[in-house]
Design brief:
- The chain is an alpha/beta fold and 128 residues long.
- The radius of gyration is 15 Å and the shape is globular.
- The strands form two sheets. It has a four-stranded mixed sheet with strand order 1-4-3-2, with helices on one face. The chain has a four-stranded mixed sheet with strand order 5-8-7-6.
- It contains three helices and eight strands.
- Helices cover 24% and strands 41% of the residues.
- It has helices spanning 13-23, 63-72, 85-94, and strands at 5-10, 27-34, 37-43, 52-57, 78-81, 99-106, 109-115, 121-127.
Length: 128
């Protein structure tokens, strides 16, 4: 068994696609219209056949309070592995990305937390 698909709820799929591709560096895998929304996934360019991230609309009534509670408590909605948190932090900050946690060593891992502009906090991590 392996993870095939996971998702983050986003407040605007087009804005999310731009952020997750143009800023974070993922590549679009699928974009299938489904009424007003889309089945919209991105993947790592290093593993195009790997786990897909669904940029899922946050229209369900339970989703926005959930997302707001996570952000308010500083809890990331997802965690992405990077080769070097400090370097990725510098690259992303140079692109105007807002971080809620600068690179922090916690035992064998280094993490940082960013705002994805779509209502989520996202953790980047290296080590472990």
């Amino acid at each position: 068994m392996r993870i095939h698909l996971t998702s983050v709820f986003v407040d605007d799929q087009d804005k999310a696609l731009r952020f997750y591709t143009d800023v974070l560096g993922f590549v679009k895998k699928h974009e299938v219209p489904l009424g007003a929304d889309k089945w919209l996934t991105v993947v790592s360019p290093e593993d195009p056949g790997g786990t897909e991230l669904l940029l899922e609309p946050d229209g369900h009534p339970a989703v926005r309070p959930y997302k707001e509670a996570l952000v308010r408590d500083g809890i990331p909605a997802a965690s992405f592995a990077v080769d070097d948190v400090e370097a990725e932090f510098a690259r992303l900050r140079g692109l105007g990305v807002r971080f809620t946690q600068e690179p922090t060593e916690t035992g064998p891992v280094t993490t940082a937390v960013l705002d994805d502009t779509c209502g989520n906090l996202i953790q980047i991590v290296h080590g472990g």
